[in-house]
Amino acid sequence: MAKEEAAGSLREKNVKVVFVLGGPGSGKGTQCANIVRDFGFTHLSAGDLLRAEIKSGSENGTMIQNMIKEGKIVPSEVTIRLLEKAMIENGNDKFLIDGFPRNEENRAAFEEVTKIEPEFVLFFDCPEEEMEKRLLNRNQVLSSPHGRDDDNIETIRKRFKVFLESSLPVIEHYYSKAKVRKVDAARSADEVFESVKGIFSSFGPKDS
Ligand code: UDP
Ligand code: MG
After folding, report:
1. pLDDT of 107-138, one tens digit each?
2. Per the omega criterion (within 30 degrees of 0), is the bond before 169 cis?
3. Quaternary state and partners of this protein (predicted)?
4. Most buried of the four, 5, 20, 131, 198, by CB within 10 Å?
5. If you count DSSP H runs as helices and E runs as strands, how many of each does the chain have, helices first?
């Protein structure tokens, strides 16, 4: 499908998008699974799509792998193409886009290409010490080959830095448009989901 056609079909469908943002280890993936179960959204993790792209042996694979290992942000066109493709192939009209946009350029390019404005941004606010603890723990439980090779202390520190410098400005942008729904993410997953439910209640239960 041509680029313009892809964007057009998503627009025609009036696809609803919620961006799920927060630092590495803030609980985005865990809470997205809960939202999918109760509110009928489809979860698209930009990081998971990029990791799948590496595994598929794509020509960009090595570049993506190196950038992830350094905690750097993969060029927008790569990530946006994967997100757009996943939305079209899936066919749902409600998506949680997790871990994207990671910088202002990602954000502007996504808007430009898809013409989609998010309904709102779900922001998981969590102190760095707590996120670090969770990431290191995750890497211990899911030890190689399942553990992620960016969940080591050097890469984690780089990811925190990129989050503060590049991703927080995206959240600021949406604050200025009154589109941020902030949740205190430094609590148990169940407690966090209680807050999340309140935010999504207007979307109604699944299948309704
Ligand atoms: N990444 C990227 N662009 C994206 C999403 C992810 O470049 O839109 C890369 C980036 O290098 C990031 C890594 O993938 O550090 C892991 O992202 P993921 O969202 O899976 O990690 P999380 O923040 O959830 O721990
Ligand atoms: Mg994640």
Report:
1. 999 999 999 999 999 999 999 999 999 999 88
2. no
3. Monomer.
4. 20
5. 10, 5
User: Which one of 31, 49, 50 would you pick to mutate in the ligand 1 pocket, going by the greatest count of ligand atoms within 8 A of its CB?
Assistant: 50
Percentage above 70 pLDDT, the chain:
94
Whole-number Å distance between alpha carbons of 197 and 180? 15
CB of 27 shorter than 6 A to ligand 1: no
- Residue 39: name the closest of 16, 14, 7 by CA: 16
Contact (CB, 8 A) for 113 and 84 = yes
Whether 74 contacts 68, CB under 8 Å: yes
Q: Which residues contact 168 (CB under 8 A, 6 or more apart)?
A: none
